[in-house]
Amino acid sequence: MSGSAETAVLAGGCFWIMQQLLRDCDGVISTRVGWTGGENDNPTEENNSGHAEAVEVAFDPERISYRDLLEFFFQIHRADLGEGLVGSSYRSEIFCTSEEQRKVAEETIRDVDASGHWPGKVVTKISEAGRFWEAEAEDQDYFERYPHGCAPPFPRHGVEAANR
What we know:
By secondary structure, the chain is an alpha+beta fold. 27% of the residues lie in helices and 21% in strands. It is built from five helices and six strands.
């Protein structure tokens, strides 16, 4: 590690899934899930007025650039699905910790749009990072602790209820 870790704060859907996918990128030092970008203090699943589920990523910029981290971020969630469709908690948003991060985020969004990677235009917001409220312990590292995930909200065709 270079000793000059940087922080990225990314929101792109369920923070359990985002954390699991981001944690294994070469150069990622640590991740934690939480809430940011909303109106109330100490947000929770039940009370998160305007907050997004987000992942705070500490990374080594000598092993993975912010640009490379964002390119991966845009591959692992539907950045073309707006808040009206996915909800405020699951919106796509980049919370920048510096002006340089903002510039890189703007460039990356332009390039993702130009690539045609998603069927629609990228709707990811870019905001200044504010307070990151760490989620409760049971939300941290969820898929490390429960590798089979959570039960699906609806029964799967052909799967017995006891096996879900």
